[in-house]
Amino acid sequence: MYASTGTINTSDVTSKTFLNLEHAEKDAASEIKGMMRKFRFKNAITERGAHKAHCYFSLGAQYVRDVLVKHGLDPEMYAFLCYDKWENEYEDMEV
Q1: Total number of domains constituting the chain
Q2: In terms of pTM, does the model score above 0.90?
Q3: Which domain holds residue 45?
């Protein structure tokens, strides 16, 4: 699912198995925390103007992936970073 804003997921603590953080995960988390950025979506700036487009706070997914790899971690093992691939889908339309 793609959402222009984040979705909210909740789950009961009793459905989770908590694990200890690895040293590399702590180091990566510290680095990632410093990468938080404020941004506006480019299409919103085009549609509403720079001063009326909403501001968001987020991380760049590619940067997060690179930090995980740098610390010897497999990005595909972490649910907060997903990569979805699908074939191009086209629909013929008369214009």
Answers
A1: 1
A2: no
A3: 21-77
